[in-house]
Amino acid sequence: MADDLPLRLRESLEHADFTYDAVAGLLGTRAHDALGRNETTPALRRTQDGSPLATLTRLFLLQTPVPAEDAERALPGLVDALARRGFLRRDGDQVRALLDIRPYAADDAHLWVASDLTPGLDGAPVSVAAYHVLGISPAATSLAQLTLREPVGRALDLGTGCGVQALHLATHCDVVVATDINARAVWAAEFNAALNDAPNIEVRTGWFFDPVRDETFDLITTNPPFVISAAQGSRLVYRDSGLPGDEVVEHIVRRGPAHLTDGGWLQVLANWVIHRDVPWDERLAGWVPDGCSALVVQREVLDPAAYVELWLKDEGRHGGPDYLDRYDAWLGWFDQQGVEGIGFGWVNVHRSEHDSTYLDWPYAVEQPVAPAIRDWAAAATHPVSEHDRLRLRVDVVQETTGEPGAEDPETIVLRQRRGLCRARQVDTVEAALAGACDGDLSVGQILDAVATLTERDPAELRVAYLPVVRELLVEGFLQPSSRVPEAAP
Ligand SMILES: C[S@@+](CC[C@H](N)C(=O)[O-])C[C@H]1O[C@@H](n2cnc3c(N)ncnc32)[C@H](O)[C@@H]1O
Q1: How does pLDDT run across 75-134, given as a tens digit for each residue?
Q2: Longest dimension (CA), the chain
């Protein structure tokens, strides 16, 4: 007999209006923000009316026991069924949640996601089981915003966890295969696919690409277990791959493209080691297979000590009896390996041969950032000649700095206000060139005019600045003039 629990649960959640917006409205900004800091008190004060929405919020988000009669009213006829399936437990006349079910707003849709409970609410000791199934984390949201959302045929969500990426992919891909090594995650992802009526998600169990051995995909997304350590001893499967160092990311970047169709994309949220005396970008470039191009954005660099602290706290070791020993051993291993820092960022591999970009960009970007990734690929495949008619992107502004009252600025910077929000210091020729790119004059005509203005040799200027024009195009400051410009925000 078909399992009708997900459908019945969905009906109850819909009926209670248990949506992201309704919960945010019920809690108000302060209680919502406090919950974001894992503090429940302000939210408990705002959820006392016994309504189904308040009851579901208390039960699942605040992990608070609720009267059984309130639970029955919020989940009519489902409390015992959910208890049998491990979601709830009856304690006398109270009901408590053993798993998390929370609303999630994605791509204008209301979704619900079941996962393990968030550990460490209200300062409780963080205790995470080896096979913990992560809920919606900031990393998950970050990958969702990076993921290209054009409609495609087949997508793979590698290391699906609760299935949040697969649920997004299911909205714009015909078929989504989601894989995980953790049987509990496979169960959660299957449940969530049913709960959200996404029959195009197929969940499989296995080690990275093993379950999709001979298959190809138009899009592969993954937020893998990327925590970098010696990989000895116990392991939290959601974050530790069992492979030492950053081998897990190397494996995915080296092997993933073989599972891409021509023109397909592999998008990875990643950590990587930065070795002393080895430029980080050269190391990562060595992983990208022939026939592919990469846009890698290093968003943050942590020093090894800060990194160790972050992940020891994540597993609740801070202040524990073995904290100092573990800290020392992990840091000692980093030292031994010659690790100078740990990079965090986005690896986008395009199965198409064109220029790659390795960008150190820790500054704010426009979210979702996915359109900027697509634009980069379009620009990187666009050859530039003096006959091209280019246009300055409408969101680009010019900033100048210098001595007050000085005739000429000391520095000129072009800055984007959309997409990757890149900035580039330019000289006066580049600034004049960029400013004159309105889509009417060709690059050659503009360079000749700038040569006349600056009394430079036109032929020399073309040789010197055509490569610069290409850089400005690939970096997104200029666009082919056929593109419809978007309005600045
Ligand atoms: C950081 S979680 C990401 C979960 C989810 N995709 C997200 O974006 O939040 C990493 C996931 O990879 C899974 N995983 C760990 N090792 C794996 C392996 N060798 N093969 C496949 N999946 C693995 C974990 O069980 C976990 O669900």
Answers
A1: 999 999 999 999 999 999 999 999 999 999 987 788 999 999 999 999 998 889 999 999
A2: 89
Residues 300 and 269 sit within 8 Å (Cβ to Cβ): no
pLDDT surpassing 50 at residue 480: yes
Mutation choice for ligand 1 from 134, 168, 236, 247, CB with most ligand atoms inside 8 A: 134
Q: How far apart are CA 67 and CA 176, in angstroms?
A: 40
The predicted model gives 316-345 an average pLDDT of 96
Distance in Å from the first CA to the final CA of the chain: 52
Q: Which of 11, 9, 95, 8 is nearest to 55 (CA)?
A: 95
Are 117 and 133 contacting, i.e. CB atoms less than 8 angstroms apart? no
What pTM was computed for the model? 0.95
- Distance from the alpha carbon of residue 393 to the mean position of ligand 1, in angstroms: 38
Residue 358: other Cβ atoms inside 10 A? 19
**CA 309 to ligand 1 centroid distance, Å:** 22
Q: Give ligand 1 pocket residues (Cβ under 6 A).
A: 134, 137, 140, 143, 159-161, 164-165, 179-182, 185, 207-208, 223-225, 237-239, 241
